[in-house]
Design goal:
Helix content of chain A: 40-55%
CATH architecture of the largest domain in chain A: 3-Layer(aba) Sandwich
Number of strands of chain A: 10
Number of helices of chain A: 13
Largest interface: A-D, 31 and 31 residues
Order of helices and strands of chain A: HEEEEHHHHHEHHHEHHHEEEEH
Oligomer: homotetramer
């Protein structure tokens, strides 16, 4: 990465510029626990394939993965079941998630969710995680994601989990609809426990950047060189990140940034430069699509500056 | 009713003719317990305001009210809360129920069900029945409906109730959607217990005809002369029966029969001649709209013969 | 009609009371020509089966029939083609018309409009009017409706017709959708000419009341005693008027007034008391459903006062 | 391209293998003129940045561009109007086109099409092509696309144009809906003439490969080195090709092939390897998504063999 020195020099400046966008967004309010976040916070870490890393801003605070976790539960479901089973229960077609509509579930034949990154799809994916008990499934997720983050098992934020579970009636509605359609076969509350818990696992920017780096390296651990994920499943995950990783702002993001990325309503964004680097961002103030408003600005700036777009 | 003697003479003949339509329908299969019904069964009782009654066919067997109960829980919710509260949570506009779509819930502003006779609306109505506990609510419904039927409390068919509750995932999905919209404020499983239980109360044709007769008499008990329901609420109930009492076949039924009526997937139909008579029918073989195929034929024949249409 | 004297005495008073509701509504603006109407205008004529009539308010001004004409083109299409052909191309099921959505066209199998009173259905009905040329079809409509109104052919308001045709792009969109579905077989612009022209025929309150009276008398001319419409087709028309004659306010109107009625966005309302009277109203200020706000108030008052509801 | 020799050697073999998939698809039938195509035909040309090219199969026959033309009219609309104007009238969000639904048009606020590659979006784009007359607009398109193809103006297939125009009632319906929404401001039949005509321009595989090569080279002519398209607009076009270039099969194609591509119902596919090559394919037998069934198989084989996926 021959741009490393200009990146190191410029990052703090671009971060402070991007932070000015934060007041134009809003912290997520539909989950009470999330609404407590500091709206002016912005932090980033970029971790190169060569072991170097650079960070700027508010990097130390932990935050919950929220929808970012869907990328990794998809990978686990693929590793546990294979492509054929997973894609018999969830589609491959891009569509933004509108957060409040079940219309789309009804419009697809035969009633399976459009893709694994919208809520309905991610709930189906959660039901495909292997484990003889709910506890085992969740423990497996904590361990696997922790390994990708270069640490022990990820911690669960109990308050956020409870908050999500209590306010998650639209997800419950979708889960029962999918049950009625025959797509979901496990008990709804069991599946939702797994789903809400993996959304409530915490990381910091550095850990998120390392998780992204494993994907950038096609599934190989940057330190040990161990293959953690089959390359094919990383390719699938990256493709979904490009086509529908940023909710209803995915198309605009693909044009303006052009990198595989996934956001969460906590304000986290995970992005990656194939073969070269992983990026972890936190900025809780969200734009109308539910993506970190300052985080997206920062990525646009960086992509333009260093011509990072895949397209 | 100067047609009484020709009615008495003709009824057994018309019933046997209508019974020939039964093989063109199908017994409800989506609730396992209902699928056990005898598809060739057909029975009717007509009970006049003057105390006379006539019956024909298989009149003795008990059957569950299913959606017919929605007319009476609406009346109870109106008596318990008044019009203003009830119609702030459920609309007045006719639309057939398609049984398998949530689309309509999303298309109405502000997200309240179209009317109290579609499933979503009836679930909201169930949440408005007064009572300090679920048990009390259900006991009140059993007593009130029993009184209209001219007997003690209606009995619950436990097997049907369990069957409905176990297979009722689309209703669960709707209930959580309504909760998310803020329309439903009670606990979902509590509301659904009330809903599934009032659908599983049993009557026979004669009891159903008497319930209809109370409505035909604008809410007055045909024997005691006691007012059981305010006239205004009977008027409201009758209007909904005309505009949406027969699922997606309501419009056709209004043209071909022209009487206030409500059907259930058990094959029951309650119909009434304003001021003159109540009618109870059972015929479990259903047409594509979910109405008793032979029962509808019989009512068409009677309406044409005696010019009963309100229109 | 033993209430005739109190009706005659009270009508001017109730009309002035109802006129107070006019400022709470709005004159139709989507058709430029209609927006010129006087929003405070309110007029009514009631015409009894016995030849008596009473009127109040602004009765003399002519107005265009708009959607009220759909009742009569339905009757003509039935007389020209029979029930079977008409109802193979348009359904019988009640649903309000939302004025701006094509969703419903897509949700019905096999893609036919729900009923003949929503715009899409009325366009299909217009295509079924007999005639070897568009001119002949329109002339037939003018003559038939004129006969019902007790006069020569109804006049076309050319300015309104042009205004409707120029702004009628949603109707064009629906017509091409129906063509693509195979439901509409004539040339779109030809059908729309017939449709927009019958919407632009003018009457005054007295003429509208007489048209209603023919329906109240099951199709018989009140003066000559001649049968103008087969009774069955009047029954069909009255049923649709009850279930979907007042746009998305049909259910509420059925509960609060309880008479067969049809409104138009010009502010006209045609209502009828079966066997007894026809009513014609004009009041251009519309409520949110597109019905004359003062006109509906007046009918509610009259229905309550004289217990006119069919239910 | 160090894989060139194995590509040259293998291409005829892989093409014949892929041709076996043709019988599993169906030639487009909704446009009569297209249904005449030979379903077993399959041809490909690959044209490298260095001037080399390789072809196999039925490469000589001309075919119509159909939806492939939408990529280039988008580019022209951007060059004629700038990003701001274009994206005020059409969105950026991926969604497959279902070919027969207008639902999506209603579900987006403020009623603009989701993206420029679905039919509704492409119709809006057609209205943005500069020109003082319809003839001038079409001539400009023929010239610009011809220049990209390395030849004079592309020829119009008159029979296909007439066939499309005559059967294009769903497109007409969409155009009038967009007019009603205020998104489309030109005369509907004028816009549709431009739209149907650019869909009916003909190319052969070699010309299509050259058009793709210009995009692969970020807008620069491979022979003259002249910049034909600003790089930013090529980037936008390539992004849409990845997220929604293959109708409802875009997501699956992104996973299994991973190249920017656009298909048409004539059976044409244009694909590109950024910086390296352009690909033109014709194979009229279509899979259920409307993409050349054998063409997609061939691209899957090539992408796997040479690891071409961008992801």
């Amino acid at each position: 990465m021959n741009e490393w020195s200009s990146l190191t020099a410029g990052l703090p400046v671009w971060l402070e510029q991007a932070r000015h966008a934060a007041p134009f967004g809003k912290v997520a309010s539909y989950i009470p626990e999330l609404s407590k976040a500091d709206s002016s916070m912005l932090g980033i870490q970029i971790r190169g394939a060569d072991g170097r890393s650079v960070s700027a801003g508010d990097c130390g605070s932990p935050f919950t993965l929220q929808s970012i976790s869907k990328v990794f539960t998809l990978i686990m479901a693929l590793m546990d079941n294979g492509e054929e089973i997973v894609f018999s229960k969830v589609g491959m077609e891009p569509t933004g998630d509108s957060f409040n509509s079940m219309l789309k579930l009804e419009l697809v034949q035969p009633g399976i969710p459009f893709n694994p990154l919208i809520n309905a799809g991610a709930i189906v994916v959660s039901s495909l995680i292997a484990g003889s008990s709910n506890e085992e499934k969740i423990t497996r997720i904590q361990s696997f994601l922790g390994k990708l983050a270069g640490r022990g098992p990820l911690q669960l934020d109990e308050d956020t989990y409870r908050s999500e579970s209590e306010s998650g009636n639209l997800n419950r509605s979708m889960a029962y609809f999918l049950t009625d359609n025959g797509v979901l076969q496990s008990k709804v509350e069991d599946v939702l426990e797994v789903y809400f818990k993996h959304c409530s696992l915490t990381v910091d920017c550095g850990e998120l950047a390392r998780m992204a780096l494993v994907l950038a390296l096609d599934g190989v651990d940057p330190d040990s060189g161990e293959r953690l994920i089959p390359r094919r499943y990383v390719q699938i995950a990256k493709t979904f990140m490009v086509t529908c990783g940023m909710y209803n702002g995915s198309g605009e993001f693909a044009i303006d940034v052009g990198l595989p990325a996934k956001s969460g309503v906590s304000g986290g964004i995970m992005a990656l430069l194939p073969g070269r680097a992983g990026i972890g961002i936190i900025g809780p103030s969200l734009n109308r699509h539910g993506n970190s408003v300052a985080g997206v600005h920062l990525l646009e700036q960086l992509s333009k500056e260093f011509d990072w777009s895949l397209f």
